[in-house]
Design a protein that fits this description.
Length: 462
């Protein structure tokens, strides 16, 4: 027996002989390394993605139960807000301060499970889905008239939507107890497809606010007593909602559709106050050029909060709190991954101790052939180190694949683009830690090999 090559041959043959135990120990190391790398790489990336997703708004007004729920519903489309805001309240807030812009939104309808936001055309010109990155169209334009819809990039890709197609919205999420029926008598025409923004807005559709009011007003009135319909007042058109200039009921109504009841035609001028509802208000306070901060933000936030009928949120602040909460949970998962890593080291030790009992005679023969006790010790340490090295390499590869899968799932389900690239420095540190633990795990079996008695284990087998 000569140099390092023969030693490595011995180690590799030993690992192949115990293929099952070696594979299990290597797999445990790989899983632990992959978990650690994926969690560490996604933590900061997810935090940055959520912060980017709030766009360039300063305040969000809704009637949700809490500011955090308001942000998750209004900007990330977690759920449709349950409580509406009257149009009169919007006008009151709009006129209470010289906002840079004040945009109403309404959520509640869906298209094949994807959220539909009804708003005004200013949403595309003033609001930025990611701060500093305005909306861009890959095809078509923003809606201008009644029953026109703009679709996000993910929706267009997933459902093969193109400019010129007609689609039908569903009331509610489609599976909700509140609704689920289609607005089949009012098809919408796709007039624009947005470029990817890396935000939740990629999986949403955007349409005219007044068109949505008309649809729900017609459905509501169709089920009202006829006396209530005839006695209803018809207010004047509200010039502030400038995104619909045509007669709404004529633009989207399908005369051949059979409702099973008398259909009620509603124009924009016929809308009653209780039919002009929204679920959110996006607000931005004037700032200096190139700055996103203003001393007025805190003052206006405190002023609006005094109105108990609404909930006011500072999106950046709420996302910070959410990340702090999630961060605590993240560290719990990281701790669990570390425990798995230590467990893998223990499994390496147990597997090698068990095999060492069966290889006492082999070790004794090596000693007779000239291998020193320290050389046998080094062979055992090398064996465990190779298991750790193999597991670390496989784990790093799994982390890269797992990060891509997690990124894809988050983009599809949440709409956020999270760059889950494995950090090189973290990968080196975690891999090195796994190899060191594996080497330490080999000390106990190495000591057993070192202490093997030549005379006792070379006795003839009777």
């Amino acid at each position: 027996m000569s140099g390092g090559i023969s030693d490595m041959t011995i180690v590799l043959r030993s690992l192949r002989t115990r293929a099952l135990a070696t594979s299990v120990a290597t797999a445990l190391v790989a899983i632990a390394v992959a978990l650690l790398l994926v969690l560490l790489s996604l933590r900061e990336a997810a935090s940055q993605a959520f912060r980017r997703g709030t766009g360039n708004i300063h305040l969000l007004v809704s009637a949700d139960a809490s500011p955090l729920v308001a942000v998750l519903n209004g900007l990330f489309y977690a759920n449709a807000p349950a409580n509406p805001i009257a149009w009169a309240k919007f006008k009151e807030i709009e006129g209470s301060f010289p906002w840079q812009w004040c945009i109403p939104t309404q959520l509640g309808d869906s298209f094949r499970g994807q959220p539909v936001m009804a708003t005004t055309a200013e949403f595309f010109t003033d609001f930025e889905p990611v701060s500093g990155v305005p909306f861009q169209f890959s095809d078509g334009r923003a809606f201008e008239g009644a029953f026109e819809v703009v679709v996000g990039s993910s929706v267009a890709r997933d459902f093969a939507l193109q400019v010129g197609q007609q689609i039908v919205f569903t009331h509610g999420s489609g599976g909700s107890r509140e609704g689920g029926h289609e607005h089949a008598d009012h098809p919408y025409e796709v007039v624009g497809v947005l470029q990817p923004t890396g935000s939740a807005h990629d999986r949403a559709l955007f349409t005219n606010l007044v068109s949505t009011w008309v649809i729900h007003a017609e459905e509501k009135r169709a089920h009202e007593p006829k006396t209530a319909q005839s006695d209803a007042s018809a207010p004047k058109p509200d010039a502030s909602v400038s995104s619909t200039s045509t007669t709404v009921s004529e633009a989207g109504h399908d005369p051949g559709h059979d409702h099973g009841h008398d259909h009620v035609h509603v124009d924009e001028a016929d809308l009653r106050d209780d039919e002009k509802l929204i679920t959110g208000i996006l607000l931005r306070i004037p700032t200096r050029s190139g700055s996103d901060a203003s001393a007025s933000i805190a003052a206006q936030f405190d002023r609006l909060r005094r109105d108990v009928s609404i909930t006011v949120a500072q999106p950046a602040q709420q996302i910070g709190r959410l990340m702090a909460l999630i961060g605590d949970i993240d560290w719990l998962f990281v701790a669990m991954a570390v425990v798995v890593l230590f467990s893998s080291a223990a499994s390496i030790m147990l597997a090698m101790v068990s095999s060492m009992e069966l290889r006492r005679r082999q070790v004794a023969i090596l000693r007779v052939l000239g291998a020193s006790a320290w050389r046998v010790f080094a062979l055992a340490i090398t064996e465990s180190t190779l298991i750790g090295l193999g597991g670390a390499g496989i784990g790093a590869a799994l982390a890269i694949v797992g990060g891509q899968i997690a990124t894809t799932l988050l983009q599809e389900r949440v709409g956020l683009v999270i760059a889950g690239a494995v950090d090189t420095r973290a990968a080196i540190l975690v891999a090195a830690g796994a190899v060191v633990l594996a080497a330490i795990a080999g000390i106990v079996p190495a000591v057993k090999a070192y202490r093997t008695s030549i005379a006792r284990h070379l006795k003839p087998l009777a």
